[in-house]
Protein backbone atom coordinates (compact mmCIF):
# COMPACT_ATOMS: atom_id res chain seq x y z
CA UNK A 1 0.00 0.00 0.00
CA UNK A 2 1.42 3.38 -1.03
CA UNK A 3 2.08 6.05 1.56
CA UNK A 4 -0.24 9.03 0.98
CA UNK A 5 1.52 12.16 -0.27
CA UNK A 6 2.32 14.82 2.29
CA UNK A 7 0.06 17.85 2.46
CA UNK A 8 2.51 20.74 2.28
CA UNK A 9 0.51 23.85 1.44
CA UNK A 10 -2.74 25.48 2.57
CA UNK A 11 -4.07 25.14 -0.96
CA UNK A 12 -3.65 21.38 -0.61
CA UNK A 13 -5.43 21.51 2.76
CA UNK A 14 -8.34 23.34 1.15
CA UNK A 15 -8.39 20.80 -1.69
CA UNK A 16 -8.61 17.89 0.78
CA UNK A 17 -11.33 19.66 2.78
CA UNK A 18 -13.36 20.09 -0.40
CA UNK A 19 -12.84 16.40 -1.12
CA UNK A 20 -14.09 15.44 2.36
CA UNK A 21 -17.17 17.64 1.90
CA UNK A 22 -17.89 15.97 -1.43
CA UNK A 23 -17.47 12.52 0.16
CA UNK A 24 -19.91 13.52 2.91
CA UNK A 25 -22.50 14.55 0.31
CA UNK A 26 -21.89 11.33 -1.63
CA UNK A 27 -22.33 9.28 1.56
CA UNK A 28 -25.69 10.98 2.14
CA UNK A 29 -26.73 10.28 -1.46
CA UNK A 30 -25.76 6.61 -1.09
CA UNK A 31 -27.72 6.35 2.17
CA UNK A 32 -30.80 7.70 0.38
CA UNK A 33 -30.40 5.19 -2.44
CA UNK A 34 -29.87 2.27 -0.03
CA UNK A 35 -33.06 2.84 1.96
CA UNK A 36 -35.33 -0.09 1.26
CA UNK A 37 -39.01 0.23 0.49
CA UNK A 38 -41.24 -2.81 0.09
CA UNK A 39 -43.98 -0.90 -1.71
CA UNK A 40 -44.49 -1.05 -5.45
CA UNK A 41 -43.97 2.70 -5.81
CA UNK A 42 -41.59 3.88 -8.51
CA UNK A 43 -38.05 3.96 -7.11
CA UNK A 44 -37.50 7.52 -8.43
CA UNK A 45 -40.59 8.71 -6.55
CA UNK A 46 -39.26 7.09 -3.38
CA UNK A 47 -35.88 8.80 -3.68
CA UNK A 48 -37.51 12.13 -4.51
CA UNK A 49 -39.72 11.95 -1.42
CA UNK A 50 -36.70 11.17 0.77
CA UNK A 51 -35.13 14.49 -0.24
CA UNK A 52 -38.03 16.33 1.46
CA UNK A 53 -37.65 19.03 -1.17
CA UNK A 54 -40.36 20.28 -3.51
CA UNK A 55 -38.91 20.47 -7.04
CA UNK A 56 -41.07 21.98 -9.79
CA UNK A 57 -39.88 22.25 -13.40
CA UNK A 58 -40.51 25.70 -14.86
CA UNK A 59 -42.07 25.96 -18.30
CA UNK A 60 -40.02 27.89 -20.87
CA UNK A 61 -43.11 29.98 -21.66
CA UNK A 62 -43.31 31.39 -18.13
CA UNK A 63 -42.13 35.04 -17.96
CA UNK A 64 -39.79 34.23 -15.07
CA UNK A 65 -37.93 31.71 -17.23
CA UNK A 66 -36.77 34.45 -19.59
CA UNK A 67 -35.86 36.71 -16.63
CA UNK A 68 -33.65 33.97 -15.18
CA UNK A 69 -32.06 33.31 -18.56
CA UNK A 70 -31.11 36.98 -18.95
CA UNK A 71 -29.89 37.13 -15.35
CA UNK A 72 -27.64 34.13 -16.01
CA UNK A 73 -26.20 35.54 -19.22
CA UNK A 74 -25.78 39.20 -18.22
CA UNK A 75 -24.08 38.40 -14.91
CA UNK A 76 -21.24 36.54 -16.60
CA UNK A 77 -17.94 37.79 -15.16
CA UNK A 78 -15.74 39.75 -17.56
CA UNK A 79 -12.67 37.74 -16.53
CA UNK A 80 -14.39 34.41 -17.29
CA UNK A 81 -14.08 34.94 -21.02
CA UNK A 82 -13.04 31.44 -22.12
CA UNK A 83 -16.58 30.00 -22.02
CA UNK A 84 -20.25 30.97 -22.19
CA UNK A 85 -23.27 29.84 -20.20
CA UNK A 86 -26.49 28.47 -21.67
CA UNK A 87 -29.67 27.88 -19.68
CA UNK A 88 -31.04 24.37 -20.33
CA UNK A 89 -33.72 23.95 -17.64
CA UNK A 90 -35.08 25.72 -14.55
CA UNK A 91 -36.36 23.97 -11.44
CA UNK A 92 -38.02 25.80 -8.58
CA UNK A 93 -36.98 24.21 -5.27
CA UNK A 94 -38.40 24.69 -1.78
CA UNK A 95 -37.93 22.92 1.55
CA UNK A 96 -41.05 23.59 3.65
CA UNK A 97 -39.47 22.08 6.78
CA UNK A 98 -36.70 24.72 6.67
CA UNK A 99 -38.89 27.78 6.04
CA UNK A 100 -39.02 28.57 9.76
CA UNK A 101 -35.21 28.80 9.84
CA UNK A 102 -35.11 31.62 7.27
CA UNK A 103 -34.39 34.89 9.09
CA UNK A 104 -35.59 37.85 7.08
CA UNK A 105 -33.28 40.80 7.82
CA UNK A 106 -34.79 42.85 5.02
CA UNK A 107 -31.67 42.97 2.85
CA UNK A 108 -32.72 40.31 0.35
CA UNK A 109 -30.55 39.46 -2.63
CA UNK A 110 -30.69 36.83 -5.38
CA UNK A 111 -27.26 35.20 -5.42
CA UNK A 112 -25.71 32.19 -7.16
CA UNK A 113 -24.23 29.08 -5.58
CA UNK A 114 -22.43 26.42 -7.62
CA UNK A 115 -21.30 22.93 -6.66
CA UNK A 116 -20.33 19.60 -8.20
CA UNK A 117 -23.12 17.28 -9.37
CA UNK A 118 -22.14 14.75 -6.69
CA UNK A 119 -23.03 17.28 -3.97
CA UNK A 120 -26.58 18.13 -4.98
CA UNK A 121 -28.41 15.24 -3.32
CA UNK A 122 -26.82 16.34 -0.06
CA UNK A 123 -27.59 20.02 -0.71
CA UNK A 124 -31.24 19.39 -1.63
CA UNK A 125 -31.70 16.85 1.17
CA UNK A 126 -29.94 18.63 4.03
CA UNK A 127 -29.40 22.18 2.86
CA UNK A 128 -26.15 24.11 2.51
CA UNK A 129 -23.70 23.41 5.33
CA UNK A 130 -20.92 25.44 6.94
CA UNK A 131 -17.55 23.75 7.50
CA UNK A 132 -17.40 22.14 10.99
CA UNK A 133 -15.51 23.86 13.86
CA UNK A 134 -12.64 21.35 13.72
CA UNK A 135 -11.89 22.23 10.08
CA UNK A 136 -9.19 24.90 9.62
CA UNK A 137 -10.49 28.24 8.39
CA UNK A 138 -7.40 28.96 6.29
CA UNK A 139 -8.10 28.70 2.57
CA UNK A 140 -11.49 30.40 2.72
CA UNK A 141 -11.35 33.95 1.39
CA UNK A 142 -13.72 35.29 4.07
CA UNK A 143 -13.50 32.47 6.62
CA UNK A 144 -15.98 29.64 7.15
CA UNK A 145 -19.43 30.19 5.79
CA UNK A 146 -21.75 29.57 2.86
CA UNK A 147 -20.43 31.29 -0.25
CA UNK A 148 -22.64 33.03 -2.82
CA UNK A 149 -21.83 35.25 -5.79
CA UNK A 150 -23.65 37.86 -7.84
CA UNK A 151 -21.71 36.59 -10.86
CA UNK A 152 -23.24 33.48 -12.43
CA UNK A 153 -19.93 32.42 -13.98
CA UNK A 154 -18.12 32.75 -10.64
CA UNK A 155 -20.46 30.14 -9.14
CA UNK A 156 -20.40 28.08 -12.34
CA UNK A 157 -16.65 27.63 -11.89
CA UNK A 158 -17.38 25.53 -8.79
CA UNK A 159 -19.21 22.99 -10.95
CA UNK A 160 -15.73 22.08 -12.26
CA UNK A 161 -16.94 21.37 -15.81
CA UNK A 162 -14.84 19.98 -18.63
CA UNK A 163 -15.20 20.19 -22.40
CA UNK A 164 -16.78 16.71 -22.44
CA UNK A 165 -18.82 17.07 -19.23
CA UNK A 166 -20.07 20.61 -19.59
CA UNK A 167 -23.51 20.38 -17.96
CA UNK A 168 -23.97 21.24 -14.30
CA UNK A 169 -26.22 22.85 -11.72
CA UNK A 170 -26.15 26.26 -10.07
CA UNK A 171 -28.69 27.49 -7.53
CA UNK A 172 -30.12 31.00 -7.53
CA UNK A 173 -30.92 31.59 -3.86
CA UNK A 174 -32.82 34.26 -1.99
CA UNK A 175 -30.32 35.41 0.64
CA UNK A 176 -31.16 37.75 3.52
CA UNK A 177 -28.05 39.44 4.88
CA UNK A 178 -27.40 41.34 8.11
CA UNK A 179 -24.43 43.44 9.31
CA UNK A 180 -23.12 43.61 5.76
CA UNK A 181 -19.43 44.47 5.32
CA UNK A 182 -18.28 45.32 1.77
CA UNK A 183 -14.64 45.35 0.70
CA UNK A 184 -13.57 47.84 -2.01
CA UNK A 185 -12.47 46.63 -5.45
CA UNK A 186 -9.09 44.94 -5.38
CA UNK A 187 -6.84 44.05 -8.28
CA UNK A 188 -5.21 41.01 -6.67
CA UNK A 189 -7.06 37.72 -7.07
CA UNK A 190 -5.05 36.08 -4.28
CA UNK A 191 -6.36 37.90 -1.22
CA UNK A 192 -7.92 36.71 2.02
CA UNK A 193 -9.25 38.06 5.28
CA UNK A 194 -6.50 37.41 7.83
CA UNK A 195 -8.43 38.42 10.97
CA UNK A 196 -12.03 37.23 11.59
CA UNK A 197 -14.58 40.05 11.52
CA UNK A 198 -16.77 38.75 14.34
CA UNK A 199 -19.25 41.63 14.24
CA UNK A 200 -20.34 40.85 10.70
CA UNK A 201 -22.60 38.04 9.53
CA UNK A 202 -22.11 38.79 5.83
CA UNK A 203 -18.94 39.71 3.97
CA UNK A 204 -18.42 40.55 0.33
CA UNK A 205 -16.25 42.24 -2.23
CA UNK A 206 -17.13 44.50 -5.14
CA UNK A 207 -15.77 43.09 -8.42
CA UNK A 208 -13.78 45.21 -10.81
CA UNK A 209 -15.78 46.93 -13.57
CA UNK A 210 -19.04 45.98 -11.90
CA UNK A 211 -22.07 46.47 -14.12
CA UNK A 212 -25.66 46.89 -12.95
CA UNK A 213 -28.24 44.81 -14.80
CA UNK A 214 -31.85 45.92 -15.08
CA UNK A 215 -34.29 43.00 -14.92
Automatic annotation (TrEMBL):
One GO cellular component, as annotated: nucleolus
GO terms (BP aspect): double-strand break repair; protein poly-ADP-ribosylation
Chief location category: nucleus
Residues forming coiled coils: none
Domain PARP alpha-helical: 1-34
Catalytically driven reaction(s): NAD(+) + (ADP-D-ribosyl)n-acceptor = nicotinamide + (ADP-D-ribosyl)n+1-acceptor + H(+)
Cited PROSITE patterns: PARP_ALPHA_HD, PARP_CATALYTIC
A Pfam family assignment: PARP_reg
Record key words, sorted: Glycosyltransferase, NAD, Nucleotidyltransferase, Nucleus, Transferase
GO molecular function: NAD+ poly-ADP-ribosyltransferase activity; NAD+-protein mono-ADP-ribosyltransferase activity; nucleotidyltransferase activity
Domain of life per record: Eukaryota
Positions of the PARP catalytic domain: 42-215
Enzyme class: transferase
The EC number(s) this enzyme carries: 2.4.2.-
Localisation per UniProt entry: Nucleus
PANTHER family in the record: DNA LIGASE, POLY [ADP-RIBOSE] POLYMERASE 2
Name the UniProt record assigns to this protein: Poly [ADP-ribose] polymerase
Organism: Echinostoma caproni
Amino acid sequence: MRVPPLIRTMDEVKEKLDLLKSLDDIEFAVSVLKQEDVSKENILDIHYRQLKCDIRPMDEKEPMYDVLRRYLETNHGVTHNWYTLELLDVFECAKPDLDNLFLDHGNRMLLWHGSRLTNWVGILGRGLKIAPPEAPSTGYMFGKGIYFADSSSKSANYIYPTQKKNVGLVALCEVSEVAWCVFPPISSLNCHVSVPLVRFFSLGSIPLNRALVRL
